[in-house]
Amino acid sequence: TGVEIEALVRSIQASFDVYVKLNKKVQPEVLMTVQSIDDEGRLADTILANLPSIKLSDRQALLETADVKTRLERLFEVMQAEIEILQVERKIRSRVKKQMEKTQKEYYLNEQMQAIQKELGGEKDEFKNEIQELEEQLAAKKMSEEATSRVTKEIKKLRMMHPTSAEATVVRNYIDWILGLPWGDTTEERFNLDEAEEILEEDHYGLKKIKERILEYLAVQALTHKLKGPILCFVGPPGVGKTSLAKSIARATGRKYVRLSLGGVRDEAEIRGHRRTYIGALPGKIIQSLKKVATNNPLFLLDEVDKMSTDFRGDPAAALLEVLDAEQNHAFNEPQPADTISVEAFKQLPTR
User: How many domains does the chain have?
Assistant: First the structure.
């Protein structure tokens, strides 16, 4: 029994040492006093008096325990429970302190960065001005409701980003492409068949049947004023005038001329574009040409359609079907702009 009591006394003194280190409310002098006490009952009572976090009812129950060994055992259990609680509290305080230090550090660095940028001319101010310019461009554009909603969300997302981040560059490039498209810019079309015939005769000798078919096509367009209709496909060996005929039609109708060479195209993304998650992603050749010509009703020459090939990256001819089919091309959708755009206003002239 004496050995057990001695072991309990040593364990309690060691636990009280840990408790004092964890709980700053207990003075260090108390620890020296406790270590100098020899009487077990007095030791228990002194330690109990210096445990401020213990409930009054538990303290009273310990003081009323007459048996010294039982009192020491219960005191040791109480102290171990208090030490565990204090250790958890210390972990919580440490975690909160680190978080506060991190937040304060970020705030301090942001304030410093803003001060430096202000001294250098204000990169943030320039970024805000750029966003304001984008919003003005959006307000001036006659875009579809879907495209307007999408660009508004992207501008809102861009405003929350840091101007030098990689994601901000991707979003900015995406917005620039959408705003750069000729949503409401249309070239006025001419339907003068006599003038069209003169231009065709002036530019090409012979080709009587082809010229008649072209004039029939233009006559139907002039009568119906509808954009939907069959496309013209010129077939013939190299050098017979397929490409130059397309230029003449564009000149006769007053439309701008766009030539898209499809010879050797093997990737579907050349037509439909890449997803913007890829590095260096670009829209397809259709959208690129549309932006370059700056009008939404050009005459589009799809040259060398039969020279397209297929490989593991997809079939560009299948993607081209969406462009040429009158039932689908009113809602042509690209992964890069990710908005529906109508290409039915094009005059499409495939050649092979």
Answer: 3
